[in-house]
Amino acid sequence: MLGDRRAIPERPGLAAAPDFVAIGHLTLDRIAGTLRPGGAALYAAVTADRLGLSAGILTSHGDDFPLDAIPPRIEVVSVPSGSTTTFTHVAEPGGRRLLASREVATPLQPQDVPEDWRSAPLVLLAPVLGEVDGTLARAFDDASVAAAAQGWLRSRQPDGTVAPAPWEDAPLVLPGLQALFVSDEDTRGLGDEVQEWFQHVPIGAFTAGRHGALLFVNGERYDVRPLRVSEMDETGAGDVFAAAFLAHYHRDGEPWEAAAAAACAAALSVERPGLEGIPDAARLASALAGYHKDL
């Protein structure tokens, strides 16, 4: 089923695929009494856009999602749905608890990819709650396909609580990936299983917020130190990391420099609320220069 397509003023003919395609639900996030647009695919696509790539999002959402909150340069293909996947963030003494709406948007399948997008060079599978079919890892002609696996590692409990879940489709998805991104929050208690995933992909990154990240290159592990910033809002930082890494790695082919850029981009993104903190290329270049100078 092909979805509705938002026209892009800068690409009136839509003759070419975007440089970067993110696949996953756009969401509504209730945080501290406010309702704002979210979703891993949104944070990733906005990052790619601000770093100078043309970007597209394959998604599904209801009529209540504010599409005008997405930069107009980003092409959006939406599979029709009666609902928007909605999350409520609840602050508790032991940390944050996440609640998911009972009604969620339509799952995303290989047949939902527009034919002209199958030649996109960079693709990030970015589910929020298991909505991305694992076979999408093989739905593109010659793309570097990556995955931010968070949404495959959690499920909705009967009371709405989002809880850890096993990644049952990992054997299906991993062979089709060039890069895998997971976080310490997503994988608590998995240990050896996560190490095994990284043995099956050329590039992997394990992010740990203010503690930095681990980079895996052909199974070998390297430390990635963090950029120290004043944290205001950590939402979407892992998705910013993934998109910035892919953008830099695609450009230069250097995984260690891509990881440094990704660490800086993710850190900068938490200095401001929501999408506001995602850096453009100039702000990221400045931070990256200081990051290297401090070595």
CATH architectural arrangement: 3-Layer(aba) Sandwich
Unreliable sequence segments: none
CATH classification class: Alpha Beta
CATH homology group:
Ribokinase
Number of DSSP helical runs? 6
Termini Cα gap: 51 Å
Main sheet makeup: 10 strands, mixed
State Rg.
18 Å
Number of domains: 1
Strand order of the largest sheet: 1-6-5-2-9-10-13-14-15-16
Strand-residue proportion: 25-35%
CATH fold node name: UDP-N-acetylmuramoyl-L-alanine:D-glutamate ligase
The chain-level structural class is: alpha/beta
Summarize the amount of helix as a percent range.
10-25%
Return the string of H and E elements: EEEEHEEEEEEEEHEHEEEHHH
Total beta strand runs:
16
Envelope shape: globular
Overall pLDDT, averaged?
92
Task: Give an account of the 3D structure.
The chain has a single domain (4-290), classed as Ribokinase (UDP-N-acetylmuramoyl-L-alanine:D-glutamate ligase, 3-Layer(aba) Sandwich). Helices cover 22% and strands 26% of the residues. The chain has helices at 40-50, 170-173, 192-198, 237-252, 255-269, 281-293; strands at residues 4-5, 20-23, 27-31, 34-38, 55-61, 75-80, 85-92, 95-100, 122-125, 144-148, 154-156, 162-164, 179-183, 203-207, 213-217, 220-224. The protein has a 10-stranded mixed beta sheet, covered by helices on one side. Strands 4-3-7-8 form a 4-stranded mixed beta sheet. A two-stranded antiparallel sheet has the order 11-12. The longest helix is centred in the last third of the chain and has 16 residues, at 237-252.
